[in-house]
Amino acid sequence: MEVSVRVAKQTDKELFKNLLNIYHNELGLYCGEFQDVDENGYFDNHAADAYFSGDKSILPLIILYDERVIGFAVVTVPPYSYGENDFCLQEFFIVGYYRGSGVSDIAVKQIVSLFQGKFCAAALKNNKYSVNFLRRVFSSFGGREKAFENDFILFEGDDSVISEE
After folding, report:
1. What is the predicted pLDDT for the residue at 165?
2. Whose CA is closest to 91, among 130, 64, 126?
3. DSSP class of residue 9?
4. pTM of the predicted structure, to 2 decimals
5. Nearest 5°: phi and psi at 76?
6. Could you tell me if 75 and 108 are in contact, meaning their C-beta atoms sit under 8 angstroms apart?
7. Nearest Cα to 92, choosing from 110, 113, 78, 71?
8. Which pLDDT tens digit goes with each residue over 143-153?
9. For the segment 13-24, what is each residue's pLDDT rounded down to a tens digit?
10. Which residue, among 55, 61, 53, 58, has the nearest Cα to 20 in the 3D structure?
11. Which residues have C-beta within 8 Å of that of residue 11, sequence separation ≥ 6?
12. What does the buried/exposed string (b/e) look like for 40-57 if buried means 16 or more CB atoms within 10 Å of the residue's CB?
Protein backbone atom coordinates (compact mmCIF):
# COMPACT_ATOMS: atom_id res chain seq x y z
CA MET A 1 0.00 0.00 0.00
CA GLU A 2 1.68 3.18 -1.22
CA VAL A 3 0.09 6.34 0.20
CA SER A 4 1.55 9.66 -0.89
CA VAL A 5 0.70 13.33 -0.57
CA ARG A 6 1.63 16.04 -3.02
CA VAL A 7 1.04 19.76 -3.31
CA ALA A 8 -1.84 20.48 -5.68
CA LYS A 9 -0.95 22.30 -8.90
CA GLN A 10 -3.10 24.84 -10.69
CA THR A 11 -4.00 22.06 -13.15
CA ASP A 12 -5.57 20.17 -10.22
CA LYS A 13 -8.19 22.86 -9.60
CA GLU A 14 -11.00 21.07 -11.45
CA LEU A 15 -10.18 17.78 -9.69
CA PHE A 16 -10.16 19.61 -6.36
CA LYS A 17 -13.49 21.27 -7.18
CA ASN A 18 -15.10 17.90 -7.87
CA LEU A 19 -13.68 16.29 -4.73
CA LEU A 20 -14.85 19.29 -2.70
CA ASN A 21 -18.37 18.77 -4.01
CA ILE A 22 -18.40 15.16 -2.76
CA TYR A 23 -16.96 16.36 0.55
CA HIS A 24 -19.59 19.09 0.86
CA ASN A 25 -22.33 16.55 0.20
CA GLU A 26 -21.10 14.56 3.20
CA LEU A 27 -20.68 17.68 5.38
CA GLY A 28 -24.30 18.53 4.65
CA LEU A 29 -25.27 15.65 6.93
CA TYR A 30 -23.70 17.51 9.88
CA CYS A 31 -24.32 21.19 9.20
CA GLY A 32 -26.86 23.38 7.46
CA GLU A 33 -24.34 25.01 5.15
CA PHE A 34 -24.44 22.41 2.37
CA GLN A 35 -28.08 21.53 1.81
CA ASP A 36 -28.77 22.77 -1.71
CA VAL A 37 -26.89 22.62 -4.99
CA ASP A 38 -26.69 25.27 -7.71
CA GLU A 39 -27.85 24.84 -11.31
CA ASN A 40 -24.65 22.88 -12.08
CA GLY A 41 -24.96 20.51 -9.13
CA TYR A 42 -22.35 22.16 -6.89
CA PHE A 43 -22.88 22.91 -3.23
CA ASP A 44 -20.30 25.69 -3.50
CA ASN A 45 -19.10 26.30 -7.04
CA HIS A 46 -16.37 28.70 -5.89
CA ALA A 47 -14.92 26.83 -2.90
CA ALA A 48 -11.81 25.73 -4.80
CA ASP A 49 -11.05 29.32 -5.81
CA ALA A 50 -9.86 30.20 -2.30
CA TYR A 51 -7.48 27.25 -2.23
CA PHE A 52 -5.97 28.14 -5.61
CA SER A 53 -5.87 31.94 -5.15
CA GLY A 54 -2.12 32.04 -4.61
CA ASP A 55 -2.47 32.87 -0.90
CA LYS A 56 0.75 31.48 0.64
CA SER A 57 -1.14 30.79 3.91
CA ILE A 58 -3.26 28.10 2.21
CA LEU A 59 -1.75 24.88 0.85
CA PRO A 60 -4.01 22.46 -1.05
CA LEU A 61 -2.78 18.86 -1.14
CA ILE A 62 -3.73 15.81 -3.19
CA ILE A 63 -3.75 12.38 -1.51
CA LEU A 64 -2.86 9.36 -3.62
CA TYR A 65 -2.95 5.61 -3.13
CA ASP A 66 -0.78 3.63 -5.54
CA GLU A 67 -0.66 6.82 -7.66
CA ARG A 68 -4.49 7.07 -7.87
CA VAL A 69 -6.17 10.16 -6.46
CA ILE A 70 -8.24 9.21 -3.41
CA GLY A 71 -8.69 12.51 -1.61
CA PHE A 72 -7.43 15.92 -0.66
CA ALA A 73 -6.37 18.03 2.28
CA VAL A 74 -5.87 21.71 2.95
CA VAL A 75 -3.21 22.92 5.37
CA THR A 76 -3.19 26.52 6.56
CA VAL A 77 -0.83 28.71 8.56
CA PRO A 78 -1.56 31.91 10.52
CA PRO A 79 -3.77 33.81 10.20
CA TYR A 80 -5.89 30.75 9.29
CA SER A 81 -4.63 28.38 11.99
CA TYR A 82 -6.11 28.39 15.48
CA GLY A 83 -4.56 29.58 18.73
CA GLU A 84 -0.85 28.97 19.10
CA ASN A 85 -0.74 26.36 16.35
CA ASP A 86 1.68 26.78 13.47
CA PHE A 87 -0.41 24.69 11.06
CA CYS A 88 -4.01 23.60 10.72
CA LEU A 89 -5.41 20.64 8.82
CA GLN A 90 -8.29 22.78 7.63
CA GLU A 91 -9.89 20.18 5.34
CA PHE A 92 -9.34 16.45 4.98
CA PHE A 93 -11.24 14.07 2.73
CA ILE A 94 -10.76 10.49 1.58
CA VAL A 95 -13.29 8.91 -0.79
CA GLY A 96 -15.48 6.37 0.96
CA TYR A 97 -14.08 3.18 -0.52
CA TYR A 98 -10.66 3.76 1.12
CA ARG A 99 -11.92 4.63 4.60
CA GLY A 100 -11.24 2.11 7.33
CA SER A 101 -8.25 0.68 5.45
CA GLY A 102 -5.57 2.66 7.31
CA VAL A 103 -4.96 4.95 4.34
CA SER A 104 -6.42 7.98 6.12
CA ASP A 105 -4.16 7.51 9.17
CA ILE A 106 -1.08 7.24 6.97
CA ALA A 107 -2.09 10.32 4.97
CA VAL A 108 -2.60 12.50 8.07
CA LYS A 109 0.72 11.37 9.54
CA GLN A 110 2.48 12.11 6.25
CA ILE A 111 0.90 15.56 6.09
CA VAL A 112 1.86 16.44 9.66
CA SER A 113 5.40 15.14 9.16
CA LEU A 114 5.88 17.49 6.16
CA PHE A 115 5.82 20.47 8.51
CA GLN A 116 7.81 21.44 11.60
CA GLY A 117 5.63 22.78 14.40
CA LYS A 118 2.38 22.55 16.27
CA PHE A 119 -0.54 21.15 14.29
CA CYS A 120 -4.30 21.26 14.79
CA ALA A 121 -7.51 20.10 13.15
CA ALA A 122 -11.14 20.80 13.97
CA ALA A 123 -14.14 18.53 13.58
CA LEU A 124 -17.86 19.12 13.89
CA LYS A 125 -18.96 17.58 17.21
CA ASN A 126 -21.89 15.73 15.66
CA ASN A 127 -19.70 14.17 12.95
CA LYS A 128 -18.77 11.22 15.18
CA TYR A 129 -16.77 9.49 12.43
CA SER A 130 -14.51 12.51 11.98
CA VAL A 131 -14.21 13.16 15.73
CA ASN A 132 -13.24 9.54 16.44
CA PHE A 133 -10.81 9.47 13.52
CA LEU A 134 -9.04 12.70 14.54
CA ARG A 135 -9.02 11.66 18.21
CA ARG A 136 -7.31 8.38 17.32
CA VAL A 137 -4.80 9.85 14.87
CA PHE A 138 -3.85 12.89 16.96
CA SER A 139 -3.51 10.81 20.14
CA SER A 140 -1.10 8.51 18.26
CA PHE A 141 1.39 11.38 18.15
CA GLY A 142 0.75 12.92 21.55
CA GLY A 143 -2.18 15.11 20.54
CA ARG A 144 -4.98 16.33 22.75
CA GLU A 145 -8.50 17.59 22.22
CA LYS A 146 -10.44 20.49 23.64
CA ALA A 147 -13.78 22.17 23.22
CA PHE A 148 -13.70 24.77 20.51
CA GLU A 149 -15.97 27.27 18.79
CA ASN A 150 -19.67 26.39 18.93
CA ASP A 151 -20.12 23.00 17.30
CA PHE A 152 -16.46 22.01 16.95
CA ILE A 153 -13.79 20.03 18.78
CA LEU A 154 -10.16 21.07 18.26
CA PHE A 155 -7.37 18.49 18.13
CA GLU A 156 -3.82 19.69 18.74
CA GLY A 157 -0.41 18.07 18.61
CA ASP A 158 3.03 18.55 17.21
CA ASP A 159 5.13 16.63 14.75
CA SER A 160 7.93 15.69 17.16
CA VAL A 161 6.64 12.17 17.79
CA ILE A 162 5.94 11.50 14.11
CA SER A 163 9.30 12.89 13.00
CA GLU A 164 11.07 10.28 15.15
CA GLU A 165 9.17 7.31 13.61
Report:
1. 40
2. 130
3. P
4. 0.90
5. -125, 160
6. no
7. 71
8. 888 877 778 88
9. 999 999 999 999
10. 61
11. none
12. eebbbeebbeebbeeeee
